[in-house]
Amino acid sequence: MNRADAMIHEDALLWMVRTRDPEFVDWEGFTAWLEVDPAHGTAYDALMAQDAELAGIIPADPVPMLAPANDAGHPAERRWRSMRWIGGGAVAAALVAAVSLSVMNRSDIYTVTTAPGEIRTIALDDGTKIDVNGGTTLRLDRKNLRFAALDSGEAAFTVRHDEAHPFRVTVGDDLFEDAGTVFNIVRSDASTRIGVSEGKVIYNPRAEAIALPAGRALTEDATGVKVMNIAPEAVASWRNGRLVYANAPIGEVGEDIARSIGVRLSTTPGAAAMRFTGTIALDRDPARFFAGAAPLMGLTAVRQGDGWLLKEGDGPQS
Amino acid sequence: MDMATGLSAIFLQNRPVLLRFLRARGAGEDAEDMLQDMWMKLEAKDLGPVADPLPYLYRMANNLMLDRYRSSIRREKREHDWAGGAGGVMADASENIAIDERMILTQRLEEARAVLRELGPRVELVFRRFRIEGVGQRLIAQELGVSLTTVEKDLQKAYRAMIALKQRLDTE
């Protein structure tokens, strides 16, 4: 790029930043700049096209919410540090009485979405870590770090416990409240499942108030709420590339597989009604995965269009 | 007078400046046709109340030009691929390729993360608020207690770095 081109590039960059602002109004100024040289418009177009492609490489980490600085005289760096601190504790404390899970300022809520097969880890400022499995939608609140809403899919929460400010996860109408905890929640259309591997979680603390210590799991579906045992190492085992089950309906297993390896998967009614106990190793190659996993479950997997079908076993393994 | 009529009236009043804008943007002989398209869209849609009608119309025209540029790039790429013999034969859609692509993607995300981190926390935050979350510059400036110019400069810095990274990744 020669000097003149470099200057045009810089100007175009500035106009891109300006025109991308939702409140931009200086279209006449922009017109005047464009009229100077046809190369201006070309440079602008090229940058805007590159901007559109940036989406693919921008890491979507959550950003801690900053409070407005009260004292404009402070150096920026110091302001930043103090706001980090506010994000960690004071805001949560200030809001604890006022927070209502249903009435929130929309601009503070952000959504984390993963595609099937995609795994993402989110580190919140308070030390809490959330591992998000594929095919999941999770909402977080910049103003209240001790809150998450699992709208669909699966996530494992490693919560930094704070007696005064429990971490809360809402799943539909249900509320899970941590008491020092590592836990995994799955939400599908039909059911909500939670498994606790460390500490304790309270299910709907203001209604049923069921305490789930480590090694306990809870399932809620159309038939009601069931509490059962779960091996702590089986909780969120997808993070280690395994799915671990004890007497689980194949329907649930199928949903977990679809989310974890990123395939469209359906099950025949006969297969869905069966149950499975054991460990399945995840593999991102669906053909290889099903070749191993389907016989393990006593089932057969066949390719169907752009997805897979799990059906009752036939052939040698049945 | 309902809002749609209002917007149409403003369109008619400002037709000359919009035409001038489209020409400056490089629409050439198509500028008149594009205005006609805009007019049809405005008439067809009940847009409801628009707070700032003229900037809204400018933005609409700008978006038309961006779409036009994108489709011309796509067409060029198709023709290029065709001429290069890449078209016509489908590559084997083996899953191993998908895994490689995922690894490349993960690596790119890491590089982008590093680039943003190097810009410093404020620039990174401003860029994320603006580019990912779509928050306006005025609001970002208020949140951070800095001037609008500072936000603009931060965004230029971040975009410069990110676009340089993108260009490097594309030529690798």
Domain count of chain A = 3
* Largest beta-sheet characterization of chain A: 13 strands, mixed
* Spatial extent as radius of gyration of chain A: 25 Å
Shape of chain B: flat
Counting DSSP H or I runs of 4 or more residues, the number of helices of chain B is 8
- Helix residue percentage of chain A: 25-40%
Judged by helices, strands and strand pairing, the structural class of chain B is mainly alpha
Biggest protein-protein contact in the assembly: A-B, 53 and 60 residues
Q: In this structure, how is the largest beta sheet of chain B organized?
A: none
CATH topology of the largest domain in chain B: Rna Polymerase Sigma Factor, Chain: A
Q: So what's the CATH class of the largest domain in chain A?
A: Mainly Beta
CATH class of the largest domain in chain B: Mainly Alpha
SS-derived structural category of chain A: alpha+beta
**What oligomeric state do the depicted chains represent?**
heterodimer
CATH architecture of the largest domain in chain B: Orthogonal Bundle
Number of helices of chain A: 7
User: Rg of chain B to the nearest angstrom?
Assistant: 22 Å
Q: Could you give the topology of this structure?
A:
The complex is a heterodimer of chains A (318) and B (172).
Chain A: H1 3-19, H2 27-36, H3 38-54, H4 76-95, E1 109-114, E2 120-123, E3 129-132, E4 136-141, E5 147-158, E6 168-171, E7 174-178, E8 182-187, E9 192-198, E10 200-203, E11 210-213, E12 216-221, E13 224-229, E14 242-249, H5 250-261, E15 265-267, H6 269-272, E16 275-281, H7 286-296, E17 299-304, E18 307-312
Parallel strand pairs in A: 5-6, 15-18
Antiparallel strand pairs in A: 1-4, 2-3, 3-5, 4-5, 5-8, 6-7, 7-10, 8-9, 9-12, 10-11, 12-13, 14-16, 17-18
Chain B: H1 3-13, H2 15-24, H3 31-44, H4 53-83, H5 95-118, H6 121-132, H7 137-144, H8 148-171
Helix pairs in contact in B: 2-3, 5-8, 6-8, 7-8
